[in-house]
Design a protein that fits this description.
The protein has 538 residues and is an alpha/beta fold. Helix content is 32%, strand content 17%. β13 (351-354) and β14 (358-361) form a beta hairpin. α1 packs parallel to α14 and α14 packs parallel to α16. The two termini are 25 Å apart. The mean pLDDT is 96.
């Protein structure tokens, strides 16, 4: 027998739990399917040493409960993975969310049944459900790359993927360790592992910009101050471009006096972390302005690395700051001054194969006990395209997106009625505080669902024109920035064979919210709302 639900949510990370809480409070019979054995999403898997958020703790948290805001005590400006996971577990327990979550349940596929106006959802082990609405809260960074090299199966040591770090930990003390990759994960784990390993070798393909986290313990005075003005802080974040609460200087960086600009960059460098990109309004819009920020960061990197050859290899060149997502680090560059840390430039000496005792590059064989892949994810679409999702007339989402993802608002896809994506391509997503952006979308869907149920609407489907117009708008906004100048996961360049299109929406958190509000005010413009009677007759 197929169990019937009002809403099925796929994924029990931050977005999935928020969706469950919101839709359940709306009176909807809601079920969450979660592939793992616990809540947390990416924070349940990314347990590598040094893992932490690059958004400040007070902002990377739920806004729906003032009581929760007041009772939870963050300990650091940028929370570590264990603290974030503890927070998520606390939320799940406090609001009794786990009773509506099926763990160890991976969605294998979903098919839209037009005759019944239901999504028929099947798990990998053959269980089935039917739902009026299907919410995909699968996350943007939840499908790791399956990176391998020839000979890996014969390697005598341990191979670990950072996104699947063993829960019982890994003893790296006095070990010879390799880290392949210098994206956010590699940058975060390098200083921590270097302090314990006998020898650490970091394999780098492309040097990237990184800003110091300026992390610090949160004092009681800071905690009281934030909690006294939490509502105002939330509103500042909602009305900022990134959802971080930072408001850029409205002047062009290229037009500001050099001394004043240097002072502004210095101040941002020592405090803003990821928000450094918002020091001036046009750092990501104007090449000349971006060059001033890029040069400042290069100078800062140079100050941290003693060896001139290493310094040159660790300095990003040939692309604008921010066009690849910058890292936020805690001592990454200075770590290469340690005698037990070495950098291998894969552009000069690429990896050829694993051997029984280590890795052979084009110039030498290096012995290792542990090799760690920090090579990233199939971002934005990887997790969305893994299940077999079929809309009207059997159209597969993978087929619809064969040339790149298309959607209306990043939320809805034509030919896939009552299917909604949280944090998907075409929304601010990873160009923002993704938790805030997810909550904006879920709150908007709450209003949509309430309207539909009150007025007898059975199906909601984006029109083909609205979808096409939104894709054009996303591309138009991207062309106004520098993002398209650099191959990155923003453009699908992280995976071979992936369509090269700009994935997120660069119009900002505030701009995106205003679009959502306007569409709702106009009776959900761009959607076809079909009544139960009409849908049944069809």
């Amino acid at each position: 027998m197929t169990e019937d639900k009002d809403v099925i949510v796929v994924g029990a990370g931050f977005a999935g739990l928020r969706a469950l809480k919101t839709f359940r409070d709306l009176g909807l019979d809601t079920l969450v399917l979660e592939a793992s054995d616990s809540v947390g999403g990416v924070w349940n898997f990314n347990r590598y040493p040094g893992a932490r958020c690059d958004v400040e703790s007070y902002d990377y948290s739920y806004r729906f409960s003032p009581e929760l805001e007041q009772e939870w005590r963050w300990t650091e400006r940028y929370a570590t993975q264990p603290e974030i996971l503890s927070y998520i577990e606390h939320v799940a327990e406090r609001f009794d969310l786990k009773r509506d979550i099926l763990f160890n349940t991976r969605m294998a596929g979903a098919t839209y049944d037009a005759a019944r106006n239901r999504w028929l959802v099947e798990s990998a082990d053959g269980r089935r459900w039917a739902a009026r609405r299907l919410i995909l809260a699968l996350g943007q960074l939840s499908t790791p790359k399956e990176t391998t090299y020839p000979g890996q199966e014969g390697f005598g040591g341990q191979v670990i993927y950072s996104a699947r770090w063993p829960r019982d930990g890994v003893d790296l003390k006095d070990k010879r360790v390799a880290i392949i990759g210098t994206g956010s994960s590699g940058v975060q784990m390098t200083p921590v592992i270097a302090a314990h390993a006998a020898q650490l070798t970091v394999f780098q393909r492309t040097a990237n910009y990184s800003i110091p986290a300026a992390n610090a313990p949160l004092t009681e005075a800071e905690d009281r101050e934030v909690k006294a003005g939490y509502r105002e802080r939330r509103e500042r974040a909602r009305n900022s471009p990134s959802g971080l609460g930072f408001v850029p200087d409205e002047r062009s960086a290229s037009e500001v006096d050099a001394v004043e600009r240097e002072e502004a960059y210095e101040k941002a460098w020592n405090r803003l972390g990821f928000g450094f990109a918002l020091t001036f309004k046009d750092i990501l819009l104007n090449e000349e302005s971006n060059q001033t920020a890029s040069e400042f960061i290069r100078r800062k990197i140079a100050e941290q690395v003693h060896d001139p050859v290493l310094r040159d290899k660790l300095t990003p060149k040939g692309f604008a700051f921010g066009t690849r997502r910058p890292s936020v680090d805690s001592g990454f560059f200075a770590t290469f001054n340690r005698p037990n840390v070495r950098l291998v430039d894969l552009g000069e000496t690429p990896i050829e194969e694993f051997t029984a005792g280590g890795i052979r590059t084009s110039s030498e064989e290096l012995p290792f006990d542990v090799v760690i892949y920090a090579t990233g994810f199939d971002v934005f679409t990887g997790s969305l395209l893994k299940p077999k999702i079929a809309g009207r007339n059997g159209l597969l989402l993978a087929e619809k997106w064969s040339g790149g993802p298309v959607s209306y608002l990043g939320l809805s896809v034509h030919s896939f009625p009552n299917l909604f994506i949280i944090g998907g391509p075409g929304s601010p997503s990873l160009l923002s505080n993704v938790l805030l952006s997810s909550e904006e979308q879920i709150d908007w869907l709450e209003g949509l669902f309430a309207r539909c149920d009150a007025s007898g609407v059975a199906t909601v489907e984006a029109t083909e024109k609205a979808e096409s117009d939104w894709v054009d708008h996303v591309n138009d906004r991207a062309r106004q920035t520098l993002y398209l100048s650099t191959p990155s996961y923003y453009t699908g360049a992280e995976m071979p064979g992936k369509p090269r299109v700009f994935m997120p929406y660069s119009g900002g958190v505030r701009g995106y919210r205003r679009v959502l509000e306007k569409i709702a005010e106009r009776g959900y413009e761009g959607f076809v709302l079909t009544s139960r009677e009409t849908a049944s007759a069809a």
